Amino acid sequence: MTSPQIRHRVDPRAERAARTILTGQRPRLLRQPVATATVNERRRDPRAIRDAALVQRQPRPRYDWARDAASAGTTAAVGVAVANAPVIPLQVIAEPAYLVLAMLDRPGGEVSEHDRQVIAAARLLADAGGGAVVTVATGSGEALAEAGSDRHVALPDGWADDYVPERRAAAAAALMASLSPRHILFPDSPDGGDLARRVAAAAGERLFAGVQSLGPDRATRQSAGGSLETGHRPTRLMTVAADAFAPLDGVRHEARPLDLATPVVAGEEVLPRLGCARRLAVDPDALSLSETDFILSAGNGVTDWQSFAELGEALGATRAGSRVVCDAGHLPRERQVGASGTVVSARCYLAFGIAGAPQHLQGITGVKHVIAINTDLHAEMIKRADLSIVADAQEIMPALIRLIRERRHD
Amino acid sequence: MTDAAMGNVAVLLSIGRHPVSGRSRRAATDAQALEMALALRPRRLTAIHAGPAADAEALRAYLGMGLERLTLLVLPEGADPVEALITHLRHLAPSLVLTGRQAEDGESSGMLPYLIARGLDAAIVPDVVRIGPADTPDATYGKADLVQALPRGQRRALTVTGRLIATVHPSAPPARASAFGPARRGVIEPVAAQAAADLFLSDCEHRPWRPKPKLMRVKRGGSALDRLKAATESKSGKGQLLINPTAEAGALAIYDNLVEQGILP
Ligand SMILES: Cc1cc2nc3c(=O)[nH]c(=O)nc-3n(C[C@H](O)[C@H](O)[C@H](O)COP(=O)(O)OP(=O)(O)OC[C@H]3O[C@@H](n4cnc5c(N)ncnc54)[C@H](O)[C@@H]3O)c2cc1C
Ligand SMILES: Nc1ncnc2c1ncn2[C@@H]1O[C@H](COP(=O)(O)O)[C@@H](O)[C@H]1O
């Protein structure tokens, strides 16, 4: 008999109050008990609470105990039927108190990880006082909504491919004059850092380069060759160091085109002093493995080294191998991929006859796209790969060389 | 190969700092800039440092690379070197100024070359690895061909008109070793210069740098199950699998996939 009021089903006082009718001269009692009065509010019904907290039954039950009981009944019913897809609320900043510009690189038209980090840093500054983030890049702003952009200014599409730092700097200066943003952030990448320095030199303002941490009233960076941390109030022009801020996710902003009084093709009148920019062909085998973008790799399953060399040349890929291959002397030691070799971050990794030992897979964790050719269906490499081909490497290699030569001639 | 376009070259040299011991030394990319300038064999080569006279000894490592003399613009401690350098360079009127990429000591913001370019009204090209006079017939008036280093080992060629400031990338040809004898014999010429104190820098607070923990890509949102999966599972390609195709079919699949990824044209 520890807590009798919980164990009792009926609350006689409440029951009596519910049956009382106060309309006449004196209170009267109804004969029949009223339905609601039978339930004691203080009594817990664990089954009902459990049902109300259930948000998902499949693949296994999930409960949300923090939900309020009022809305529980309805959403629980939906939650069972629909695999709950969280809808991210759209955040609108209609009347921004000030603007924070994020000048993105957008190399090759895609929003890079570093660009997202810059937007995240810009959000830190904007959210501190009701400001809005304005992204400036080539292409449209749709892809930037999920990264946290409120407004977008599109630069001419052609600038994505050409090397036009002087034009970009002139456009940035024009935006700076017309929007008078409180801060302008750039990625501290080769292109973004160059642009930021051009803008800072032209504006005669101090650039706070390579920001490592940021708050509304303090920014820090590394100085003196990385031995000191320098702190200051956030200045107007800053570049954001790589991997210093986590990109946002789970947010949705408008990224709506900003209507400008004047279009941002300022810089047409700038007479470019840099010209005839063109990419040079580089010898893929002269690049270090950690730098290159496309690796052709061989393992113990490769015996036809002549074809392997020819294939590397035909593909324009940097050659590499597993440890077994380098131990056997087929490739030099600095071409070994893996834990005791080089950790690579190529965009594409084409592996012939590699089993995929843990020490090897450690070396390719940063690779985006893996293609594996192996005779063994159960090799780890086949599981890791995005395109797996169970076949003999010695047959695929010559066929691929032939195919490439054929396509190149017509 | 001494050319009219490359006749008058200036190199800006700062004092470097060893990342571990903290001792002063020649700065790595500045030494590469000097190497590039020496390899051009210009008619006139001026090497300039701006800073306190007390730092002169650290500059001898540059003289040891085969430089006969070096100009030291004497400034008080904590002064901004930009104005002094611009004034001196206006007077010299070089067609090419080579600098390092980022200083190893002081603010090391990499702004100095840009400010100099602004002051001299010159073009600026960052991350240069090779430089030479343009091989076009009208090369008489200052045109230079450059090769610029891009990320991932790529290279870009450029042509620049007029006066040029170039910053040197670490993958430019390595600097020659510094020899002791020439380093002793070389002459450091002090030149008095005017400079204002750098107010911004004295407004900043400095403290020793402490390494920060590496940023992890934590996925927020989704269910607990999704987050656990994202944190623990290694990325395994849920891709196509072809079992025992003919050699031609296999090769075609690889080729198409590479084209799709934008690796092959
Ligand atoms: C401390 C330590 C560090 C190590 N560090 C590294 C490292 O950095 N890098 C590294 O690579 N290894 C490293 N290793 C070695 C690693 O454990 C494996 O031994 C090695 O990666 C295996 O190489 P492999 O896949 O080429 O050869 P194997 O394991 O012999 O696999 C060959 C594969 O080729 C397939 N095959 C055979 N014939 C054909 C054919 N005709 N066509 C197609 N496929 C065929 C087979 O099915 C098999 O899957 C390390 C080991 C240790 C102990
Ligand atoms: N005091 C100085 N005297 C001469 N050159 C300098 C000086 N400071 C910087 N530089 C040059 O400018 C480059 C970039 O410097 P910074 O902008 O300070 O990072 C350096 O690599 C040097 O080539």
UniProtKB/TrEMBL annotation, chain A:
SMART domains in the cross-refs: ETF
This protein's UniProt keywords: Electron transport, Transport
Electron transfer flavoprotein alpha/beta-subunit N-terminal domain location: 100-270
GO molecular function, one term: flavin adenine dinucleotide binding
InterPro entries: DHS-like_NAD/FAD-binding_dom, ETF_a/b_N, ETF_a/FixB, ETF_asu_C, Rossmann-like_a/b/a_fold
GO biological process: one example: fatty acid beta-oxidation using acyl-CoA dehydrogenase
Assigned protein family: Belongs to the ETF alpha-subunit/FixB family.
UniProt protein name: Electron transfer flavoprotein subunit alpha/FixB family protein
Lineage, broadest ranks: Bacteria, Pseudomonadati, Pseudomonadota, Alphaproteobacteria, Rhodospirillales
